[in-house]
Every structure is written in structure tokens, then in C-alpha cells.
Design brief:
The complex is a heterodimer of chains A (427) and B (358). Chain A is of the alpha/beta class and 427 residues long. Chain A has helices at residues 2-16, 36-57, 76-87, 99-112, 142-156, 174-190, 207-216, 228-239, 256-259, 282-292, 307-330, 337-345, 351-356, 402-420; strands at residues 23-29, 65-71, 116-117, 135-136, 165-171, 193-199, 220-224, 247-249, 270-273, 348-349, 366-367, 378-385, 390-393, 398-399. Chain A has two domains: 2-140 and 279-363, Rossmann fold, CATH 3.40.50.2300; 142-273, Response regulator (Rossmann fold), CATH 3.40.50.2300. In chain A, strands 5, 6, 7, 8, 9, 12, 13 and 14 form an eight-stranded mixed sheet that branches. In chain A, strand 1, helix 2 (36-57) and strand 2 form a beta-alpha-beta unit. The radius of gyration of chain A is 21 Å and the shape is globular. Chain B has 358 residues and is mainly α. Chain B has a domain at 44-266. Chain B has helices spanning 13-16, 23-43, 46-72, 80-97, 103-122, 130-150, 182-205, 207-217, 219-224, 229-256, 261-264, 267-280, 285-309, 314-335, 339-353; strands at residues 163-164, 169-170, 173-174, 258-259. Chain B has a two-stranded antiparallel ribbon. Chain B has a two-stranded antiparallel sheet with strand order 2-3. In chain B, helix 2 (23-43) runs antiparallel to helix 7, helix 3 runs antiparallel to helix 10 and helix 4 crosses helix 10 (229-256). Chain B starts with 12 loop residues before the first helix and ends in a 5-residue tail after the last helix. Classes of the chains: A alpha/beta (427), B mainly alpha (358). Chains A and B meet through helix 1, strand 2, helix 3, helix 4 and helix 6 of A and helix 3, helix 11, helix 13 and helix 14 of B. Chain A: InterPro entries: Leu-bd, Peripla_BP_I.
């Protein structure tokens, strides 16, 4: 009986699946579960951008966009179910917004020839496109983030970090462990002292870590956190009166959700970013006319302009641009996932292009190629202004230390290639 | 009418003590086996195997394992997630250290290693009981997860701490890694599930099972009639952990392919398997299957109905899913505290007389 019901339900799903004349995008979102507060704005931004394209331009290159949403709850098992249930719809690219699910999907999507775009998360060495043919992580990855944070510290210290103490507070998972290698390498180069403070999932209990910080008095604290861990860490930092301007989070630790609970105490907290803040762009006017005022906004519609909403919007914009590039290369409008990959590999984001889209100076310029799936590694530092209640960009986009990162990426991707019997190459 | 014994004569002890003494039941069992082995592999696709069959089969093994410990021997355990992690990491280390050995043996060896670890953490059960034992096994859960996160030898010093299953094949057909066929992974898991269920069923019917049940029902009385609590309890921990270890190894190697210990084998996994056992029915092999089916298939079914067929927003559907599953659990436990297996038993009694109950 149960099976029969599933079968009918499944048949309904298959019947409801769109004709292939549209372009389909999947959104593996999480609007529920422990990380919902962060998942919702991202999912809203991602969805709203595609709604805008449908309403304003009639889709991409004349093809209506069909967005298939699937709820993962940040859970890998549900992520697998979502992937399997949506891959039949011809989804062009997957953006799971979870390092765990990304790791899961890398071999599966490679076997199924569907591209994955893990924007600013996932497996860093996927930057080496010769090994990870179907995985992209432009415009920046965690190792870029680690390097940019150190670069910022170098800048404010007049180029010298020797003898300084830097502590890394990180989520004790694949995600949080990502920057360690890079920070260790950079410590050798710049002579700072690195200490590691893991925080176990979900990160509600960090008293001991911050007690240690109070005792060791590091000059700077870096943080790789997500969800409730960020809020707790910032509150704890306020409690021990750690100077907030010396506390830098990765881009996933820098949203309104993270700083607002700590109130005025969080003023001056810094976080990295690879896109700009706020709604002061022409695109947001279009968004208001075509999506919000028509009542088509995703979710509750109250997230517009928050950091993670903008990030979702940016992810959707890059996906749409890659689809346009693919349409241009192959001369067809109804592209396949394989053609989408070609589009992503030929993607080039220039200032002129972003201005034309109504997002001038919104993200860094970068270009993707088969050898380089990770863009050029530009990022900037934002700072929270508690009085104004907004994030402000305090630096220009700067490039990560490619001399240090490139060998690390080569080594890690080579290890993956040999483990999995992949011969690196562009064909 | 259906489950009649009339006219079903047994002329030997072997026939009399078989697993399914009623003819109809036996044929139904053969039919299910033939269907699962001979028909399903031909019609199965990636979605069905990855979203439905594989989690169901693997959780069934885990539930059978835990049921032996909790349902048959009465030792409450909250360490299932940790023991599954032992199975997963053992199979990973074996797969990478001995790539030439067939994965089939790696999975069994992973079960064996988990059995040893289970015995180790079962030692406190000799002195403590009930809730206190539950807390002691909870310590196993947290310790094991911490261990696999902390000691990089377990994940071969990879930078992220993730373990990835390399490609391995059985009879030249790949069962782990990315390029697997749906039917191959399905059959691989099915073989393990059926074997585990048969072993568990026969263990619990025999002398060993009776000893476990004696300990469960009253350990002092059991000791007086000559059951050695040391052997009975530790053997229950060993057998239970063996199955849980196999489930963990399959969960990692065949089902997910890449695993992070805190996320995949956290405390919520222990609770999930314990709920399967309780909802399915303590002390019943069928109950393990029923519980696993209930907690694995129902959410997928609800999701497909609410989102796929009715087109509701995904977040609303996800919230409703929690509420419906939760409400159903409460309803089931109030209506039948002995679980789905007892419901099945009652249904069978009724069917025996149907359609003339008097």
C-alpha cells in the first residue's frame, strides 16, 4: 500500500516535470532545520533572481526558467534524496550550500555529468578543473578566504605579522578544518603563531574556547563558523571584551543573523565577503517592480538586501550568466547540463557586464577556464556597523596569496585524482 | 481464512519448529524473497535505490542489531550511532589498506571489529542497568565520534576529515564509488539484509536467544536457573554491534560514499534507530523492518505527496512532515505500545478467522 502510494506520488512528480524546452535549475535549499536562519535568505535570493529573469526578460535567452526546489534541512541523507529526485528534471547545475552535501555529490554528479557550483564552500581543491571536471567553486574558496584574512592583517600591521598570535575558532567538521593547512603554511611565511580552537556541532557551547582566548590573549581571532555557532562566538567575544575589530569571520560568519543578537557589542566585527552589501543597485529597483510588488517574492519576502540574500542572488546571477554563455557557445537556447559546464568554464565576469546587469561593483572581476574552476580568488573585508545596522565594505577586493595556495591545490587534487583513478586533463 | 493452520500437518520436529510454521505465511515469505531478488533489480532506478531501498535495507540491519540488544536482551543502548561509525571507519581503513581483498569481506570484518568495540563498551552493563546503562552507552556515542574526528589516522590524514569510499567491485560489478548501477548496490545491500535477518531470527529462536530473553525478563532469576549474565550480556553486545557495524559500513561505503562522522553518526542517528526499534516492536525481527520502513519511507512519501503532487512550498511540507510523523508515532504508541509488530500479530489473528469470526 505504502509502495503504491509512493509510486503514484512519484508518477505525479514525473508527470509534473517540465517539458525539456525550458531551462531547469535546482535549488537544494534548507528552510528548516538547525541552519534555517541562514538557509532562508540564501534560498529567497536565489529564487527571486530567477523569478525576476522570468518576469522581466522571459527567462534566459527566451527560455523560461523552471526552478525546482528541494528541502534538504542541511542533512546529507536528505540531500542525496533531493539530488536523485531532481536530477531527472534536467537540472543544469547544483548548488547545495552545504559542504557535507557537496562532498557527497562530487562523485555522483561527476558520474552523471551534471555540474556543481559550490560558491565559496565545498572542496577547495575543486579549483583544479583538470581533476574536478564537473565541480566549480568560483569566485573564491576557503583557502582564498584564509589568505585574504591574513592579508588584511598584514595591511593593518604594516606588512609584518611576526610574533603576533592568531587563533582560529572553527566548526569541527570538514568545513571548519578547510583553512587549517593554508593558515599553517602562511604562518611559516609570515611568522605568526597559530592556535586552533575547534568547536563541536552545533556550537552552542563555547565557554572553554573563549576562556582559553581570554587566557592566551591572541592578537587576532579568525572564525570558520555557521549557524548558531557564529552568534554564540560573537556574544562570547563581547563577553570577554575581545576587541571586535580584531575578530574576523569567514563569509559564512558574516550575516545580520550573526551580529544582531550581540547588539551594540558586536560593533566593529569584521567578516570576509566576495560580493557587496545593501540594496543600492539598479537591479534591486527591477526586483521591486517585477517581483516584490507583484507579490512573487520567495518565502516571506522580508529578507531582501540581507547579506545572505545578496549571496543567493549573486549565485543565481552567476548561474544565469553561465547559462547565457553556454547558449552563446552552442547556439541553442535549451542547453543540457554538459553544455552548461562549457558555459561555466568560459564564464567571464567583468565590471562592464555587471554594470549592464544592474549590479555595478557588486562582485569581483574573474574568469573561469578548464584549468581554473575557482576564479581568481578575490575577496574583501566587511565590517558591521551596529548603530546603522548594516555591513560596510572597508577594503577593496584583494587577491589571495596564489604562490602559497596553488601548490596546496595541486597537491590535494593530485591526491584525489590518484585515490579515484582520475587522469587529469581537459578532455 | 488466510492464516489457517487447519490441514497444515507437520510430521517432523524440523517442520514443526520452522520460522514460518503457517503455510500461507511461508509462501508469502518466499514470494517477498523472489520479488526482492528477481523482480525489483530489473525495474529499479537511481532514485528508488538511493532514496528508498538502500536506506530502508541498511536501517533495517541497524534496527535488527539494536533490537537484539534492547528488545531481546533488555540492555538499553544509545550508542548505535557511534557503533555505526566504528563499522564505517573500519571498512574505510580496510578498504584503503587492503584494496585487493573483496569488499564483501571488508564489510564482514568491519562488523567483527565493531563487535569487539561493542563488547568493550558493554562491560559496564555487568554492573549497571536501565537508565544508567543508557547513559554509559551515551558516553560511547560521544567518545567514538570524538575519536574519529580527533585522530587523523582514522581518516588517512585527509585535510577535511572526510572519508570517501574508493571504487570496489564484487564479481566485476562495482558496488561502491560513483559509477555504480542501481541494481548492483541494491542487491549487495539486500544480500546482507537477508543474511542478517536470517541469522538474527535463528539466534533469537535458539538457546542463545532464550538466555537473552531470560536476562531481559529478570536477570536474577536467569542467573539462578543457570544463565551466565556475563556471557549472555556480552554476547548480546557483540552480536548487536556486529549487525550495527555492518549497517554502518554499508551506510558509508555503498549508500553515502562520503561521510563526516559528526554529521552522519551523531546522537540523532542513535535516537533514530532506537525509535525504529520501539515503533517497530521490541523483540521482533519483523518489527525492525517495520520500524525502519516507517521512519525511512514515510517522510519520503509525505514529501513526494505534499511537494510533488500537491505543489506546496518545500518548507511548509518539511514542517508538516515533522508534525505528521510525530503525531503518527504518538498515535501508534498509544494504540499499540508493543509496536507495529504487535499490530501485525493482531491482524494475523483476525485474518485467521476472517471472514467468519464466530
Amino acid at each position: 500500500m505504502k509502495m503504491k502510494l509512493i509510486a503514484t506520488a512519484l508518477a505525479a512528480v514525473v508527470a509534473a516535470a517540465p517539458a525539456m524546452a525550458e531551462v531547469t535549475f535546482s535549488a537544494l535549499s534548507y528552510r528548516t532545520g538547525p541552519y534555517a536562519a541562514n538557509g532562508i535568505p540564501f534560498a529567497d535570493g536565489y529564487q527571486d533572481y530567477f523569478t525576476l529573469l522570468n518576469e522581466r526578460d522571459g527567462g534566459i535567452g527566451g527560455e523560461k526558467i523552471n526552478l525546482v526546489e528541494c528541502e534538504t534541512g542541511y542533512n546529507t541523507e536528505k540531500g542525496v534524496e533531493c539530488y536523485e529526485s531532481t536530477k531527472g528534471t534536467g537540472a543544469l547545475v547544483y548548488q547545495p550550500l552545504s559542504t557535507g552535501i557537496t562532498y557527497q555529490l562530487i562523485p555522483k554528479a561527476t558520474a552523471d555529468s551534471i555540474p556543481i557550483h559550490s560558491m565559496g564552500y565545498g572542496r577547495t581543491s575543486a579549483k583544479n578543473g583538470e581533476v574536478f571536471r564537473w565541480v566549480f567553486n568560483y569566485p573564491a574558496n576557503y583557502w582564498d578566504g584564509a589568505s585574504i584574512a591574513i592579508k588584511h592583517l598584514l595591511d593593518i600591521n604594516g606588512g609584518d605579522l611576526s610574533g603576533k598570535k592568531v587563533a582560529l575558532v572553527y566548526h569541527n567538521s570538514a568545513y571548519g578544518k578547510e583553512p587549517i593547512r593554508t593558515l599553517e603554511e602562511l604562518a611559516k611565511k609570515h611568522g605568526y603563531e597559530l592556535s586552533l580552537l575547534p568547536v563541536d556541532h552545533p556550537g552552542q557551547e563555547q565557554k572553554s574556547q573563549w576562556l582559553q582566548i581570554r587566557r592566551d590573549r591572541p592578537d587576532y581571532v579568525l572564525m570558520w563558523g555557521w549557524g548558531v555557532m557564529n552568534q554564540v562566538a560573537i556574544q562570547e567575544a563581547v563577553n570577554i571584551r575581545f576587541p571586535m575589530e580584531n575578530f574576523i569571520g569567514i563569509w559564512w560568519s558574516g550575516s545580520e543573523n550573526d551580529v544582531k543578537p550581540a547588539g551594540d557589542g558586536a560593533n566593529g566585527y569584521k567578516a570576509l565577503t566576495f560580493h557587496n552589501f545593501g540594496t543600492n543597485y539598479p537591479l534591486f529597483d527591477d526586483l521591486k517592480t517585477h517581483v516584490i510588488d507583484k507579490g512573487l517574492a520567495a518565502g516571506a519576502g522580508d529578507q531582501v538586501g540581507t547579506v545572505l540574500y545578496n549571496r543567493g542572488l549573486y549565485a543565481a546571477m552567476l548561474a544565469a550568466e553561465a547559462a547565457k554563455t553556454a547558449q552563446g557557445i552552442h547556439g541553442v537556447t535549451a542547453i543540457t547540463p554538459a553544455q552548461m559546464r562549457d558555459g561555466m568554464e568560459a564564464l567571464e565576469m567583468t565590471e562592464a557586464k555587471m554594470a549592464e546587469l544592474g549590479l555595478p561593483n557588486f562582485g569581483p572581476e574573474f574568469s573561469v577556464s578548464c584549468q581554473n574552476h575557482g576564479g581568481n580568488g578575490f575577496g574583501a573585508v566587511g565590517q558591521w556597523d551596529a548603530a546603522a545596522g548594516e555591513w560596510k565594505m572597508i577594503t577593496d577586493y584583494m587577491q589571495s596569496d596564489q604562490d602559497v595556495l596553488q601548490p596546496l591545490i595541486e597537491a590535494d587534487s593530485a591526491a584525489y585524482a590518484s585515490e579515484n583513478g582520475i587522469t587529469a586533463g581537459c578532455n | 481464512m488466510l492464516y489457517r493452520e487447519a490441514g497444515d500437518f507437520k510430521t517432523s520436529y524440523v517442520e514443526d519448529s520452522q520460522t514460518f510454521p503457517i503455510k500461507f505465511d511461508r509462501y508469502r515469505y518466499y514470494f517477498v524473497l523472489v520479488f526482492a531478488f528477481a523482480i525489483v533489480p530489473f525495474v529499479i532506478n537511481d532514485y528508488w535505490v538511493n532514496a528508498i531501498f538502500m536506506p530502508f535495507l541498511i536501517y533495517s540491519i541497524a534496527a535488527i542489531g539494536l533490537n537484539i540488544l534492547v528488545g531481546y536482551c533488555g540492555q538499553v543502548s544509545l550508542g548505535t550511532g557511534g557503533f555505526m561509525a566504528v563499522g564505517a571507519y573500519a571498512s574505510y581503513k580496510l578498504m584503503t589498506a587492503f584494496p585487493d581483498v573483496n569488499i564483501f569481506f571488508h564489510i564482514i570484518a568491519a562488523g567483527g571489529i565493531t563487535a569487539l568495540v561493542g563488547v568493550l563498551f558493554g562491560l559496564p552493563s555487568l554492573r549497571i542497568k536501565g537508565f544508567y546503562l543508557a547513559v554509559a552507552t551515551l558516553a560511547a556515542q560521544f567518545f567514538l565520534v570524538w575519536l574519529f574526528n580527533r585522530v587523523s589516522w582514522f581518516y588517512n590524514y585527509s585535510a577535511s576529515g572526510q572519508i570517501n569510499a574508493p571504487e570496489r567491485s564484487v564479481f566485476g560489478v562495482e558496488v561502491t564509488g560513483a559509477n555504480t548501477e542501481a541494481w548492483a548496490t541494491y542487491l549487495f545491500c539486500l544480500v546482507f539484509t537477508v543474511a542478517c535477518a536470517i541469522i538474527a531470527r535463528n539466534l533469537t529462536r535458539g538457546a542463545q536467544g532464550r538466555k537473552w530473553m531470560a536476562i531481559r525478563d529478570m536477570d536474577i532469576a536467569a542467573e539462578i536457573i543457570g544463565v551466565d549474565p556475563l556471557k549472555a550480556k556480552l554476547s548480546a553486545f557483540a552480536v548487536s554491534s556486529f549487525f550495527v557495524g555492518i549497517a554502518g559500513a554499508l551506510f558509508f561505503a555503498v549508500y553515502l560514499g562520503a561521510v563526516e562522522v559528526g554529521e552522519a553518526f551523531g546522537i540523532q542517528k542513535s535516537f533514530l534507530v532506537l525509535f525504529m526499534v520501539i515503533i517497530g516492536g521490541l523483540g521482533s525481527i519483523f518489527g525492525s523492518f517495520a520500524g525502519a520502513a516507517f521512519l525511512v519511507l514515510l517522510p519520503v512519501l509525505l514529501k513526494n505527496t505534499l511537494v510533488g503532487a500537491l505543489g506546496w512550498p518545500t518548507d511548509l511540507a518539511a514542517h508538516l512532515e515533522f508534525m505528521i510523523v510525530g503525531a503518527l508515532i504518538i498515535v501508534f504508541l498509544i494504540a499499540e505500545p508493543h509496536g507495529l509488530a504487535q499490530l501485525w500479530r493482531v491482524a494475523k489473528e483476525k485474518l485467521r478467522l476472517w471472514p467468519f469470526p464466530h
